[in-house]
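Pinned message: reference record for Tyrosine recombinase XerA
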Amino acid sequence: MCVNKMDEYSEINQIKTSKKWFDPPNNDLPAYDANGEMISILEIHDFPDMIEEYLIELDIRNYSQNTIKTYRSIIKNFHEYLLSDKELYDERRFLRSFKKYIQYLKRDRSVSQNYIYLVTVVSKKFLEFNGLYFLDEVKAPKRTKSLPKSLNETEVKQLINAFDHELYCENNFKTKTRLRNKLVLTLLYSSGLRVSELVSLITNDIDLEERTMRIRGKGDKDRVVLFDIDSNILLEEYLSSRESASDYLFVNRLDNPLTTRYIQVMIKNYAEKAGINKRVTPHILRHSFATHLLKNGVDIRAIQQLLGHSNLSTTQIYTSVDMGTLKSVYDKARM
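Predicted structure (tokens):
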């Protein structure tokens, strides 16, 4: 499943730590057993239990399941690395072990700078949540702000209309499937939905007259998004032909909600059918939506609201405008 990283970064700072300037340092280390032997930090603190407690807290705070899955992987991988250190007795050795882990990730695993950033921030937040401040002096490295790729307007049309010549056929099930899939693509682009939001859509949340949908986004935050006239026409046709009793808008032949994985594979197939030689994902359609709005003069704060971003900086990363558009806006703004 595609995981959207920028959305993960925006959730990182939701967990606040309680450490104040007057908190005592971790001065009870090293610890010794009855024989005077130093005890490993991993024997003093139950890391598996601490990990589960932290993940439960993230879930309570409405972190997305994708984010929790990523955090679980990061923390457990770090814990497994720590298990190989037989001299993990105090804060200084713990800090050294963490730095060696980062070195291992960069040299042996060749991970990206953004992943190093994520490992650093998540590890610190996890430890601080459990009252351990071993990594206080560690500064998170700068992230590289690589822009996601987008489709141009022509490519979007080709993608959505890829199977139009097979849309209506004698096979009624295939016709309904093609219509459903075309609507999925249309809404992902015209409304800028996250794929997780799309598969959770309820029919009662759609207002055809107002051309709006109520979306339950990240952190269980509701927002209202718009859809265009083409989407409205498709929705009316889809709903009139729909025989499912499910509350979910998009279901499969077993009347179960579509999965994000199904939509990812479906989009890939449609892109191949349309002859688009680019990687196309639900997130790229969402990014294309934002980029095209910005290119056509929509204020970035309006785009932020439509996308459901809590921070404007996230919207700015998602949107890229070609130099020609920038020059045009610049020239029009000159006195």
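Pinned by admin. Summary line: The beta strands are 31-32, 38-39, 206-207, 212-216, 222-226.
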